[in-house]
Design goal:
By secondary structure, the protein is of the alpha/beta class. It contains 6 helices and 10 strands. It has one domain: Aldolase class I (TIM Barrel). An 8-stranded parallel β-barrel has the order 1-2-3-4-5-6-7-8. Strands 9-10 form a two-stranded antiparallel ribbon.
Length: 209
């Protein structure tokens, strides 16, 4: 099972997460308490192994700005977490992860219009686009409307529920941010425990994708 730790703000946490087995790290360039500037992201990314996915998170950002930040910072993937259209998502040379807020079975229907490398499925939208610490009804995904091998499961995951979520959804990757934080700060012990449990919890079908 692949694991993405999102909301990285410092090199120490980034390197620790990789040491524990993280496959991808997320850098938030949208308005958020976890927002990072391109200079800091660049300095961190320069220290990371090439095989690690460096994912930039953007919300309704102009294409020109996204490409500028991606190139400068050294991103490998783009995660678009706003109201981006299918045409907009297809316009990038970078692999695109399109995020969707899932509250009902109907929310899955819009995904079929997008041709992206993968789809990040998050909890229903509130004032925040993500990182709310809230889960959603994972049984919605049992309909088979989305290929499991393209699902990145997010939304309220932590070490207590990630095993159950993986066994139920069998996603390509799990994504966590607030679930490995204490008082809004990334907690190394929680990162270690989350990755350990996720890696032990099935999902081997897509391990080499």
């Amino acid at each position: 099972m692949k694991v993405k730790i999102c909301g990285i703000l410092d090199a120490e946490t980034a390197l620790y997460a990789i040491e524990q087995g993280a496959d991808a790290l997320g850098f938030v360039f949208a308005q958020s308490k976890r927002r990072i500037c391109p200079d800091t992201a660049k300095n961190i990314i320069e220290l990371l192994p090439k095989h690690i996915q460096k994912v930039g998170v953007f919300v309704n950002e102009p294409k020109k700005n996204i490409e500028k930040i991606a190139h400068y910072s050294g991103l490998t993937h783009l995660q678009l977490h706003g109201d981006e259209t299918p045409v907009f998502c297809r316009s990038f040379s970078y692999p695109v992860i399109k995020a969707f807020n899932i509250g009902s079975d109907e929310d899955l229907l819009k995904i079929k219009d997008y041709e992206c490398e993968s789809y990040l499925l998050d909890s229903p939208r509130t004032k925040s686009r993500g990182g709310t610490g809230m889960t959603f009804d994972w049984t919605i995904l049992s309909s088979g409307k989305i290929e499991s091998g393209k699902i990145i499961l997010a939304g309220g995951l932590d070490s207590e529920n990630v095993g159950m979520a993986i066994n139920l959804v069998n996603p390509y990757m799990v994504d966590v941010s607030s679930g490995v934080e204490t008082d809004g700060i990334k907690d190394h012990d929680k990162i270690r425990k989350f990755i350990q449990i996720a890696k032990q919890s099935g999902g081997s079908k897509y391990a080499n994708i």
